[in-house]
Amino acid sequence: MKTLIIVKEKDYEWLGPVFPGIHPLLLPICNKPFAEFLIDFSVLAGSEAIRFVSDGPLGDVEQYCENGNRWGIAISYGSILENDDLQMIIEKNQRYCVEEKVLIVSGYVFIQYDRQHDYKTLLASLPDGEFLSSNHGSLRLRGARPAVHETIDRVPLSLTGLDSLDVYYRLSMEILSYASSPYVLPGYNNEEYCHIGRNVVISKSSEIRKPVMIGNNVQIFEGSILGPGAVIGSNVIIDRECTVTDSIVLENTYIGEHLEVQNRIAAGNILIDPESGISIVMDDPHLLAGIKKTGSGKKVFQSFVHSIAALFLIALLLIPFLLLSPILILQGKWKRSKNSYYTSGARKPVTLTTTTIERKGILSTLAGAISLDRFTLLFSVFAGKLALIGSLPVVARHAGSMDLNTIESWYHAGVFSYAEAEDWPVNGGDTAIVERYFAVHGNPFLDISMTIKAFFNRIHETKTL
Amino acid sequence: MIISEKICNSISVITLQGTLDASTASTLKTFKPALAASSPIVIDFSRVDFLDSSGLGALVGIAREKRSKGGEVTLACLNNKVRKVFEITQAYKLFDIFDDVEAATLHAEKKQGHL
Question: Most CB atoms within 10 A, among A144, A251, B4, B59?
């Protein structure tokens, strides 16, 4: 048997603003990514292959699950479009679905099962069609032979739609409070109600009250009380005299001294009330903070190479700039404007002075062709505000704090853009495709050649930005 | 890169073989059946072993042009390497992607109103 797991972006759109940076399929439920629960159930159901299909990105899921070797099954991935119905999704995965019986899991639903039961036999006895459904998704079989009809009442099997923070919180607490868990949960578990991960340092004077679940690389300082009902993710520091009860602390979080966390979800520097969904962003890093992973030296090297290249371009364009800009200013063809732009480095938008050259006449055409409109922006490369080449700077919609939802992780504003280098229409939505490509495949030296390409491509441009 | 064309279920299937990058993207862009007005095409990627941003640009360009003429580009049999490029760039949002050429041609045919 095979399993086809269909998850659409609209099913989990509530999650993005709450836990930015966490793929919904990797959302930790009691320190175990959601996808692993789906995989576990598929394996219990007798599947030898699983395919995740989505109209959203699956890269993080693929990075985590890889080809499924870890579970002894074959995992593959597929893309669908937002409006595809089930029939279309099956057609798009025709080769995968054609020969064997397929268990289709659709929707962002948590399957509540018990690993002690025999789901393989149950599913073998069920006919084609939907056999379990909720408002948020369903389980169905396709390609099953008509067999003995069994009722599914004999075994525990139900669906919970993960449609709100409250459901997520209650589900996590429920799983935590199972004595003999029906699920395989991560961590060392020599007594009931207590799971402890690797490399956990617990101070002698701290207190652990069951049920509790602690991830890997966790430090619990003196006088802290964890539990009852605490799910602590990996890479978490619980500082002195803290109390964490009936709460979930997601990974890479620092809980400051003397803080009392009760009935809350802590994620980085955000503290959320699961019931109301109200969240508080903590500015004081001594209270609650995100633990940043150390970045590689690649970025430093990249900005160094960009700065050298920017210096070269400044030297190259300085004389034409000094000669042409005063003339064009006098002619009224050189227009400057100040605007706030998002860059990747700063949380707050930065103010940049951009130039527009009206390409009418020989001098202004020449100035535009040699990118003199970008000349002043080259100095921003030294300040670290812009990359030499990257995404086209996005104008900040609201002055003040950065709207993180509108800016994707790959975004890094540049003096030149990859879209210009690859000659993609810079004003179309397609530019994001090429920018995402180089966000992954780019390197400092490739950036130099792309800058040269963009520089020469701009000669043919009829207008400047 | 070798580009060949065959007709399957009355739909033109363009099979690409080799590398689709800056050096070969222009060959695809100028391949006549790919640009013919309004007729849907299926591009078979089963033999493509590399795709870069220029190749992707050619595909997006063809798709945009086809759509403006009322046609459609359907992709089939993306291997892991190619699929990853579509994944990281989110270009999959622009195309119908099938894991089987025949299913893709049937879909293209349906869409065109042949059935």
Answer: B59
